[in-house]
């Protein structure tokens, strides 16, 4: 774990990066979706430990897993188009 001392409102706080195998694997699983969103300038972010968030129609959307993302995407044809390839790749990897 890499640690760095910083302060928040004058008080020292400690942040540590999580490089555990589980976290790295979880983050890696978002890579195709992250790239598709980034290509469309939707400002994707991977949030600790492995959520994805992005700006869509002026709002920040955040998803803890791909199932929740899929449920949201089914209601949004433009997002379906953006993520179609990434979500299909996911199904192929599993199946």
From TrEMBL:
<dbReference type="InterPro" id="IPR042566">
    <property type="entry name" value="L1_C"/>
</dbReference>
<dbReference type="Pfam" id="PF17490">
    <property type="entry name" value="Tnp_22_dsRBD"/>
</dbReference>
<dbReference type="InterPro" id="IPR035300">
    <property type="entry name" value="L1_dsRBD"/>
</dbReference>
<protein>
    <recommendedName>
        <fullName>L1 transposable element dsRBD-like domain-containing protein</fullName>
    </recommendedName>
</protein>
<feature type="domain" description="L1 transposable element dsRBD-like">
    <location>
        <begin position="22"/>
        <end position="84"/>
    </location>
</feature>
<dbReference type="InterPro" id="IPR004244">
    <property type="entry name" value="Transposase_22"/>
</dbReference>
């Amino acid at each position: 774990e890499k640690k760095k001392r910083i302060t928040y409102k004058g008080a020292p706080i400690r942040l540590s990066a999580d490089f555990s195998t589980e976290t790295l694997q979880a983050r890696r699983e978002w890579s195709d979706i992250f790239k598709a969103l980034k290509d469309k300038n939707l400002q994707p972010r991977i949030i600790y430990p492995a959520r994805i968030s992005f700006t869509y129609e002026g709002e920040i959307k955040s998803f803890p897993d791909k199932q929740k993302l899929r449920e949201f995407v089914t209601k949004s044809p433009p997002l379906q188009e953006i993520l179609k390839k990434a979500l299909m790749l996911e199904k192929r990897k599993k199946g």
